[in-house]
Amino acid sequence: MDQQAGSSLGLxxxxxxxxxxxxxxxxxxxxxxxxxxxxVFLSKKVDNGNIYAIKTLKKKHLxxxxxxxxxxxxxxxxxxxxxxxxxxxxxxxxxxxxxxxxLEFCPGGELFFHLSRIGCxxxxxxxxxxxxxxxxxxxxxxxxxxYRDLKPENVLxxxxxxxxxxxxxxxxxxxxxxxxxxxLCGTPEYLAPEIVxxxxxxxxxxxxxxxxxxxxxxxxxxxxxxxxxxxxELFENIRKCALKLPDNISPQCRDLLxxxxxxxxxxxxxxxxxxxLEIMRHPWFAGVDWDMILNKQIKPPFKPRLQSQTDVRYxxxxxTKQGVGESPESMADSLKGGMWEGFTYDGKRGFL
Length: 352
Prior knowledge:
It catalyses: L-seryl-[protein] + ATP = O-phospho-L-seryl-[protein] + ADP + H(+); L-threonyl-[protein] + ATP = O-phospho-L-threonyl-[protein] + ADP + H(+). The chain is an alpha+beta fold. Helix content is 30%, strand content 13%. A hairpin with a 5-residue loop joins strand 6 and strand 7. The longest helix has 20 residues, at 123-142.
């Protein structure tokens, strides 16, 4: 994508000042995540000692993989959406080759980290985390945002033991029906049938993913598995909802999953005009005080036991044993007039 094409994405013609942050204002302490477009670093802001997770993205990779629009959407969503169970953006800045998201650090690590070590959760623990995921997704939907990337790796545990959604790189704004989005994107095992069919999809795909993550928390594996790299077989199983529900789960949970794993998004629980309220009212959630969950007044099943603000014991060593190895460009760059114009952000002051 060239700069002219990037400018057509509707970015504001902003009067960007020169006092934006640079990477030199942070001490990069540990690698805590990696992805196809960059790394995530545990970082300390030098002037005040505040701890953050800094997500770095390489511009050339984003352009090559046609991810510019997705990244701009992620930046917009992180700025505008504030919720107890959604990761918070503190700052955003850029250099000529990289973008930087400065995010709150969740020291409890990924839900995937805990699930992979325990094997599976019981229904009580599964339900606890699911309530926060549902409230976060419902809030996104109320703002016409589709998430599209729900999986245990994208659910973080904060210092209080509550869940937060992270990574909005596949999210899309202005989704108001079950057919508004067209792009085939997401992790194959978690795709809803309508995404696989490429006939347009909408908010209901997130409720399909909620079913997937409930199933995975209870069993230790996703409901639909990519076997021997055979995506055709995987997608056919998803289209047909070819799934055997576990025998050892409660009748209420079986009923919930059966009503979520429905191929037609308009017939799926949560796929109607009431969206997530349909899910919240299901008998499996009987007795849940959603307001107490929202206000973090329920004791979590697990709370991180931390020796310091920078304790990474709940982050997989596959990340933390990597060398920081960052040779950052110190020069901040607003690139006024280009495809990344308006990316720079300070949570206290808004756009810079």
